Amino acid sequence: MLAGAMSREFRDPRDELVEHLGALRAFAMSLTRNSAAADDLVQDTIEKAWKNMDKFQPGTNLRAWLFTIQRNAFYSIRRKAKREVADVDGAMAASLSEKPAHDGRLALNDFRKAFEQLPDEQREALMLVGASGFAYEEAAEMCGVAVGTIKSRANRGRRRLAELMGLDPNEDPVIGDTTNDSVMTASLSRQG
Amino acid sequence: MRQIDENLRRVYKDDQTQEVPDRFKHLLQKLKEQDVGGCDE
To answer: Chain B partners of A52 at a C-beta cutoff of 8 Å?
Structure first.
């Protein structure tokens, strides 16, 4: 039967959702900068995706489709809540009061704080192309903007991050494994 | 700026590999059950 062949080729995307939960949470975290808000956004995304699953084209990139739903949901919530939201950016900027340790490695937590200071569109572009590995073309489509716009946002974000971290071009700022304990602690405290 | 992307990937991977809360598994289960219920009507 053709249906049998189809089902072997394309799994029901609903069954695949569970495999994207971690990525959705990571992307939501980068958008909201708050673990409770991130989880609410993921829930909203799953419900919207489930309801609109007939619009997903089997064989195309499910994660990209889910991320698109998630970012649209984020900006929709953001617009509605704009008047109620406190000065998150200001609070975040204040929290980055200490200079990063210049011991050849960056503390991952400092990097997170610097990243959180970037404007929404730069965080989003960097998460999509820098962290998640989407092509510029895919990211542009997901954000509904030109490829050049995504490139420009990502590059501005990278430059700003380098500035915030006080990076020296000759320095190797790759985070060492020895930072993992503090990173885990930071992650766990965010979860709480 | 390759090093920036490498750090981004580390942050992303760190967030991505955290254990997914049960609320999402329960949500998926609930949605699945609602679908099954809808098909029976």
So the answer is: none
Domain boundary among A62, A85, A108: A85
Residues B8, A162: C-beta atoms closer than 8 Å:
no
ipTM above 0.95, yes or no: no
Mutate which: A12, A14, A20, A21, vs B, most B CBs within 10 A = A21
Does residue A5 lie within any of the structural domains?
Answer: no
The answer to whether the Cβ–Cβ distance between B31 and A46 falls below 8 Å is yes
Buried b (16+ CB within 10 A) or exposed e, A156-179: bbbebbbebbebeeeeebebeeeb
For B12, the closest of A26, A39, A183 (CB atoms) is A26
pLDDT tens track for A132-179: 999 999 999 999 999 999 999 999 999 999 999 887 544 544 554 444
Domain boundary among the residues A41, A67, A85 is at A85
pLDDT in tens, A27-71: 999 999 998 999 999 999 999 999 999 999 988 999 999 999 999
Number of folded domains that form chain A:
2
